[in-house]
Amino acid sequence: MKKIFILATAIAMTVAACKPELKGDLGDPANKLEGMAGTWEITSFKQQDPNNPIREERDLSEFYIIDGLSPYRLSFNKDSMTYSVAAGPGKNYFGTGGHWAFDNPNYPTYLYLYTATDTLQTLLGSVVRPSDSQLNIQLENYCEGADGSRTTTAIYTFTFNRLNP
């Protein structure tokens, strides 16, 4: 019985070790700068209080999306690395425009927006490829203590849909 068990285990390990050879090519990775290029229109705005134990997220899209009014739009140019804002209803957190950059062009996590007076660091909800039609940006609102420490008071999540490539 012991010999049969050892033989069965050896056969199972041999079969499990055989893996099919990968075929095909994944191709070149998507260009993230090209993925951001174009005009994006807001479709949703949510706010979360990270200090609330429930971590409830509130959908406040009605402040940004109002029938009859042009919605908030962001346009990114990959050649000049500039962006512009067509403000609509709701608070404008992104300024009127300026320059933009990723923390890492190949594997971006953060989107930096540089205006004449401020720099915004936003978290990308996902990497945007040229084929993607949705952009998610998270912006943290915080209070700074006297010792330089930061306490996040709100997390704003903006969802945009691509209008043109």
* Share of residues in strands: 35-45%
The chain-level mean pLDDT equals: 87
Please identify the structural class as seen in this structure: mainly beta
What share of residues is helical? 10-25%
- Quick one: CATH class? Mainly Beta
Properties at a glance:
8-stranded antiparallel barrel, Lipocalin, mainly beta
Topology (SSEs and partners):
Layout: H1 2-17, H2 32-36, E1 38-48, E2 57-59, E3 73-77, E4 82-86, E5 97-102, E6 110-114, E7 119-124, E8 134-144, E9 150-164
Antiparallel strand pairs: 1-2, 1-3, 1-9, 3-4, 4-5, 5-6, 6-7, 7-8, 8-9
Provide an overview of this structure:
The protein has 165 residues and is mainly β. The protein has one domain (32-164): Lipocalin. The chain has helices at residues 2-17, 32-36; strands at 38-48, 57-59, 73-77, 82-86, 97-102, 110-114, 119-124, 134-144, 150-164. An eight-stranded antiparallel barrel has the order 1-3-4-5-6-7-8-9. The protein is elongated. It starts with a helix and ends with a strand.
Quick summary:
With 165 residues, the chain is mostly beta strands.
